[in-house]
Design a protein that fits this description.
mainly alpha, Globin-like, about 70% helix
């Protein structure tokens, strides 16, 4: 398998990930009921995010924490939601890609999920 090398690779990864995530019994409702995703607009935005992270291109202009804080207020995230997201994301990468960028994407995804979990589920901790 090849490594993640381009935006096109990111789009393939994200499309495959959301195919799994949207039907997942534990987290699917976040994508289909709580904040129904329009993948035609969401995939390019998230591809910008991952392009910024993996290729050091300043593409993404949003605030990931603000978006997820709003979602958390609509339907509270739990630790198992983050764990499932990481599992599905890493499985999707492993099924499509292999290499330095693929490993970096898995590590960054896990790190981002950990930081979000701490900030959303334990808001007082990061202020210590």
């Amino acid at each position: 398998m090849k490594d993640i090398e381009s935006r096109e690779d990111l789009v393939i990864l994200l499309e495959r990930f959301y195919e799994k995530a949207m039907v997942d019994e534990l987290i699917g409702h976040f994508f289909t009921e709580i904040a129904p995703l329009n993948l035609a607009t969401h995939i390019p935005l998230i591809a910008d995010f991952w392009e910024t992270i993996l290729f050091d291109k300043a593409q993404y202009r949003g605030n990931v924490m603000d978006v997820h804080q709003h979602l958390h207020q609509l339907s509270a995230f739990k630790a198992e939601h983050f764990a499932r997201w990481v599992l599905l994301f890493q499985q999707t990468i492993d099924g499509l890609f292999s290499g330095e960028k693929a490993e970096r994407a898995k590590q960054r995804g896990a790190s981002i999920a950990t930081v979000m979990q701490i900030k959303l589920l334990h808001p007082g901790i990061h202020k210590l």
